[in-house]
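Go through this pair.

…
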Amino acid sequence: MKNYTNKSIKFLTGSKIYLRPFELKDITNEYRIHINQIEFLSLAIKFPSNKIELEEYAKEHRLSKNSIFFSICNLKNDDLIGTASLSKINWLDKNANYGRLIFRNYQNKGYGTEVLNLLKNYAFNYLNLNTILTIVYSDNIGSITSNLKSGARKAGILKKYFFKNNKFVDGIIFQINK
C-alpha cells in the first residue's frame, strides 16, 4: 500500500520502519480489509468498521490531547504496514497505554518490536512519561515475544478477561518504565 512517496513525514525513524501521523488518506480499501479481518481483531476494534467509522476513530485521536495515532511505514518503499498509538495519556501521573497493529503480511519480521522501541523512546524522552502499558491476548505469541524483546515486563494477568473465538482468554498486562 503506497503512501506519499517522496513526501512522507518521517516523524520517528528506525532501521526498517518509520512512524508518521495517521492520515485519513490511509483509510484505503486495503487498510479496511486488514482492520476488519476477524481473526486479527485488536483490542480496540470488536465489530466491523466502515470507512466513515474509521475516519471518526482517526479524528477522535487527532482531536484528543491524550492520544497520538501513527501510521507505520516501511522505510524502503513507504508501504503502510500497520498503525501504532499512545492513548489514554495521563499527563499528571505520566503514563499511557500503547498499541500496535501490524498487518498480516508483515507480522513476525521484527516490525512490532521496532515500533515499540520507537514508541518507548518518544514516550520517555519527548513526552516525559514514566510508564507505558498494554494488555494482550494470552494466546498472541507474536505480541508477547515482541513485548519481552522490547524490555516490557509482565505486570499481571487478568483471568478470562477477553471473549475471543467463543471462549474467554486471559489478558497479559505488559508494562515498561522509564
